[in-house]
Amino acid sequence: MWVNRVTGRRDNGGVARTIDWDEHEAAIVLVDQCALPATYRLLHVASVDDLIAAIQRLAVRGAPALGAAGALGVALAARVHGTDTAAVHADAQRLAAARPTAVNLRWGVERALAALPEGAGAVLAEARSMLAEDERVNREASAHAADLVLQRCARRPLRLLTHCNTGHLAAVAWGTALGAVWHLHAAGHVEYVLADETRPLLQGARLTAWELARAGVPYRLLPDSAAAAAMAQGLVDCVLVGADRVAANGDVANKVGTYGLAVAAARHGIPFVVVAPSSTVDKTVPDGGAIVIEQRDAGELTHVAGARIAPDGAPVFNPAFDVTPVELVTAVVTEHGIFAGAAR
Ligand SMILES: CSC[C@H]1O[C@H](OP(=O)(O)O)[C@H](O)[C@@H]1O
């Protein structure tokens, strides 16, 4: 048995799992990402309503982790509602709608629902198979991305810039863009990682810095607004980001701020690499213009840690994501290789 490096729990996969099923409690167990970096704690979620709340406050977040949450949530609903399949489907639709941009959430829900005719046990088995699949798929996608970075960047060791959080915490295990960092760091190819703090919810400052420190990867935290200057000063060899939904033409929806990074990277001739499992590619969406962008509460901008930093009632523009056109992307890399981008 292995002690899970992130959850601290024993699991037999030898990999750090951020979200899992606890058969003893018949509940979903997940790392509460809202408490990090100050506190490492696990949430035990035994109802779909509680899971939706956890998703909406980003206690569980990141496209692959949301896919797993969606599938496990359906398994929870099937166990609670038994043969009342209408109730299971109603819960499933509420779950899939909890956050509209990351396609993996709905994808995970639908994959688990497909097993419902075989019963609650089959749904749980499908969800658990997805957990194991997630780590394999993301290791492969990030390994392809790491190879591409080595091919496209002559300088050694590498100075990488990343945005938001795309590591173990954003997936069931391993991660996507940070997964490529783990591969490159293990091979001795990383000088440092510049981690965007990623306003307003600070996934970079709170989560990516925490993961990089635990992994022993040299890093520096920077304001999102300093990323372009870092590129202009020659401090960046490659930008590595994740994705929440990739359109059929290769346009990429990702954490807000990604588009600006791509524009700056293009201006400075810096490779811009997107890492995602193929489950994040949504071929039903022709291009980025058709991707629904989640708009989040004003309080995320007008307050920091509960302290008001803007006038009462200040009107805001707070999209959780933006869309980077494929023309600005060197490569969208999945477990199958390069899906889109200039490097194809
Ligand atoms: C490995 S996917 C991570 C992806 O999800 C993040 O969004 P959020 O923190 O709102 O779930 C961000 O867009 C990351 O690139």
Automatic annotation (TrEMBL):
GO BP term, example: L-methionine salvage from methylthioadenosine
The UniProt record lists the keyword Isomerase: yes
InterPro entries: IF-2B-related (IPR000649), IF-M1Pi (IPR005251), IF_2B-like_C (IPR042529), Initiation_fac_2B_a/b/d (IPR011559), M1Pi_N (IPR027363), NagB/RpiA_transferase-like (IPR037171)
Binding site for substrate: 61-63, 99, 203, 254-255
Active site: 244 (proton donor)
Highest taxon above the source species: Bacteria
Enzyme Commission number: 5.3.1.23
Pathway entry: Amino-acid biosynthesis; L-methionine biosynthesis via salvage pathway; L-methionine from S-methyl-5-thio-alpha-D-ribose 1-phosphate: step 1/6
Enzyme class: isomerase
Listed SUPFAM superfamilies: NagB/RpiA/CoA transferase-like (SSF100950)
Site positions per UniProt: Transition state stabilizer: 164
An example molecular function term from Gene Ontology annotations: S-methyl-5-thioribose-1-phosphate isomerase activity
Reactions accelerated catalytically: 5-(methylsulfanyl)-alpha-D-ribose 1-phosphate = 5-(methylsulfanyl)-D-ribulose 1-phosphate
Pfam families the record matches: IF-2B
Keywords, ordered alphabetically: Amino-acid biosynthesis, Isomerase, Methionine biosynthesis
Positions of transmembrane segments: none
Similarity remark: Belongs to the EIF-2B alpha/beta/delta subunits family. MtnA subfamily.
Function comment: Catalyzes the interconversion of methylthioribose-1-phosphate (MTR-1-P) into methylthioribulose-1-phosphate (MTRu-1-P).
PANTHER family: METHYLTHIORIBOSE-1-PHOSPHATE ISOMERASE (PTHR43475:SF1)
Protein name per UniProt: Methylthioribose-1-phosphate isomerase
